[in-house]
Amino acid sequence: MSTYNIFQIAVPEFKHIHDAKLQHDQAVELLNCIFIEIPKLSKQQLETIGLDKAIYDAIKHGMFEFIDEIIELYPEILWRKDKKGRTLFANAIVLRQEKIFNHVFRLGEKQRLTLLRHDIFRNNFLHLAAKLSPPSRLDHISGAALQMQRELQWFKELRRILPPKFEEELNENNRTPASLFSHEHKELMKEGEKWMKNNAASCMVVATLISAVMFTSAFTVPGGIDEKTGSPIFLRSNAFLKDFLQSLPAKSILGLFTLFFSIVNMMVAFGSAIFITLQERLAWVSIPVIILSTVPIAFFTLLQFPLLIEMLVSTYCCRIFDKSPNQT
Questions:
Q1: What band does 185 get if pLDDT is binned at 50, 70 and 90?
Q2: Can you state the percent helix, strand and coil of the chain, rounding each to 5?
Q3: Predicted TM-score (pTM) of this structure
Q4: Nearest Cα to 131, choosing from 75, 181, 95?
Q5: Which of 145, 275, 278, 325 could form a disulfide linkage to 192, CB 3.0–4.6 angstroms apart?
Q6: Is 251's pLDDT higher than 60?
Q7: Where are the transmembrane segments (predicted)?
């Protein structure tokens, strides 16, 4: 028995990995053979074999390796338009596939002229970035506010690399890219405002409950004293569309940071107070009380901390595209 067979028996998952890798290699080899023949086919034959649909599906599912192979073997594909008059990179924008669009930064100046194309609806590439992202892409992002932020990041990055004149061009519906963006994202912006308010309110409720319950239970004098409570006042103001890019996420991040910091300090104060109060008589009681009091805090942290990390990464630690437009 060979070493490979022994390893297969010892590690069953290895066969699955090996088969997947073999299937991938065979698919790449088949792709190479297909695209060697494609330049020989007529336009009608290309439509018959469904080339445009195959490329669109590859973009939709983020198969950037497949697209890279196509561009390398058949560079003319960059100039090919589908029935809507959209090129490969135009569909990458519509479908929000940044890994595929990143390939544009590896092209020469002549090939980048594909970015100047318009579709049959007179949409330029900035108009396409202004369209609402497909639900399948939005669903990967937590919360309407972060979805709105991502949409603004796409629009901002495309505006940075495209000619300034694109910002003033009108499509067949007489809309500029900015006007189209506002129209397409009207509902998402409302949902984003609602999400931000609900998130802030839930955090405020938790902070209020923690401070009220913990400090009251720890420091209440036998016989009681009169305490005044009040409801927090929330100032309401309309959130402008651009605020979703930096301002609102930054304020949410700051709010969550201060909330977590407050929770830690409250727990330290509560634990210390309980221990000092009970150490002379029932010291053992303080331990389960402190442990039980941390359970809801732990659940809240587990729910909110991943959101904080996602907001930090989305706002400060990443960009839509890997390279600047000046790099080739």
A1: very high
A2: 70, 0, 30
A3: 0.69
A4: 181
A5: 145
A6: yes
A7: 199-221, 253-275, 282-303
